[in-house]
Amino acid sequence: MLQGKTVLLGVTGGIAAYKAAYLASALVKQHCSVEVILTEHATKFIAPLTFEQLTGNRCMVDTFDRNFSHQVEHIALARRADLVMVAPATANVCAKLAHGLADDMLTTTVLACSCPKLIAPAMNTGMYENPVTQDNLDLLRKYGWEVIAPASGRLACGDVGAGKLPEPDLLLQHILRVLALPHDLEGKRVLVTAGPTQEALDPVRYLTNHSTGKMGYAIARMAMLRGAQVTLVSGPTALEPPPFVEVVPVVSAQDMFEAVTSRQEPSDLIFKAAAVADYTPADYSDDKVKKKEGDLSIPLKRTQDILQYLGDHRRPGQVICGFSMETRDLLQNSTAKLEKKRVDMICANNLKVAGAGFGTDTNVITLITRNGAEELPLLSKEEAASRILDRAVALL
Questions:
Q1: Domain 6-179, what fold?
Q2: Which one of 32, 59, 113, 157 is the catalytic residue?
Q3: Is 157 assigned a catalytic role?
Q4: Least confidently predicted of 201-215, 224-238, 254-268, 283-297
Q5: What's the whole-model pTM score?
Q6: Is 163 left (phi over 0), alpha (psi -120 to 50) or beta?
Q7: In the CATH scheme, what is the homologous superfamily, with its name and number, of domain 189-395?
Q8: pLDDT digits (tens, 9 = 90+) for 41-53
Q9: Do the Cβ atoms of 208 and 198 come closer than 8 Å?
Q10: Equal fold, 6-179 vs 189-395
Q11: Contacts of 116 (CB under 8 A, 6+ apart)
Q12: For the chain, which residues make up each domain, given as ranges?
């Protein structure tokens, strides 16, 4: 996702400096060019050679190092950088960056950068919570820095509290959110439903389906990477929630209906990708429901049609996308659903096609709008999610 991008990784003198090596490796796996600058104190915790082996680029420490091509190196690095990440950032470096001090290679280079800047403070809890440090972090936010909150736990000094450097994967997700994709959904609200619902038959059993939620989760993640404010209403799944997304867990179809309808109004784009159980047990106390002695059958009634409600109660300018799973007559049945539900797009797939349907990491989708149908090739679910979002954005 970071092909052609350059990340300037600043590493300062804290015990968590070793985690920066894992981050550098993860960035390289994303096909990113990584330029690393260590402070002098950082070299006491981790060697420049480590980063040079991981990134294939020379690690910088000394502002006055002459072992490079003839150019003002800190300015050249600043011009190449698409993003700056300082992790870990000591209290000292946070203070220097907040006040524009430039007395080493890292602070001099960062001061010359005009690209997005992220900083991950890591230090003793008392130092982190000191009002002076908090003022410095507020100053950094004022000047456009994104400050990544430290994790809490047992620190290297033995104290317990806030101050731990977040894990490298979370730092990578922060970088991806800023840099991976153009933010064409900046300022937009996206509502996604995903996963199955469960309708309790008794205290032990329930009705459900084979949905894993992978398609809806992929749409939520890709919309987040494109700058949207995303809410994901999710039935029970085994998936890790996408980062930086508001997740609303639900169980039953009625739970999902209430969660979705209460959030419909402010949403600009709605993707109903959940496979809702169509039936729920009827109420035995209802006079219309008769149960004979020895009858083991369970009377059922239809659950609320969420997509129909969304189509009937849409606000002007709202784009609504539903999903259709068919075993035959895909275009005919899905086009009829588009009209009946009064939505803008149906993403249809045939469960009999290899690579499509529940539980796979790929999908074969046909995008159906009132302007026609487009059949997509076999794609990963994230690639399919990107194509779905492209078409939905064009309908805004």
A1: Rossmann fold (3.40.50)
A2: 157
A3: yes
A4: 283-297
A5: 0.90
A6: left
A7: CoaB-like (3.40.50.10300)
A8: 999 999 999 999 9
A9: yes
A10: yes
A11: 82, 83, 84, 144, 146, 178, 179
A12: 6-179, 189-395
